[in-house]
Amino acid sequence: MPDAPEPFSKYLHRDNVILELKSDTRFGLIDEMFDNLLATNAIIKEVAFELRDLVKKREQVMSTGIGFGLAVPHSSSALINTPIIAVGRSTAGIQFEALDGRPVHIVFLLLTPASNRQQHLALLSPVSRRMHNSIAKTLMLKAGTTDDLLKCLVSGK
Hints:
The chain has five helices and six strands. With 157 residues, the protein is α/β, with parallel strands linked by helices. The protein has one domain (15-155): Mannitol-specific EII, Chain A (3-Layer(aba) Sandwich), CATH 3.40.930.
């Protein structure tokens, strides 16, 4: 029997959460999230720029704004050996060319090793469940601190 997938909370670190994004464009917020990953040493400079470009190229092909106020810019790459998750929130909302045309309020930047593509889906699944839960989503948008937001992300309450 295969091992159970690791929870996304294993890869979600407090330093990689931006309580209030300053950017008002989807490409600006990708830069902002990568800048934060660099500042917190979650990623090294030599890798960050190439990964950022991969994420932006993916975003140019098709928006990762999946609706319900959620966007999941992402990429898989051989440059990393372990997943990296960053989260950003915009209470005002960001036009992201989302499928439902509505502004995005919660952004999950998901970077996974190219050697484990199944991990991407396993990490995305709990994120999607949280965003489809209107109570959890409301709590995320109203969270006053990074710790409150993390609690909502991990527990859904």
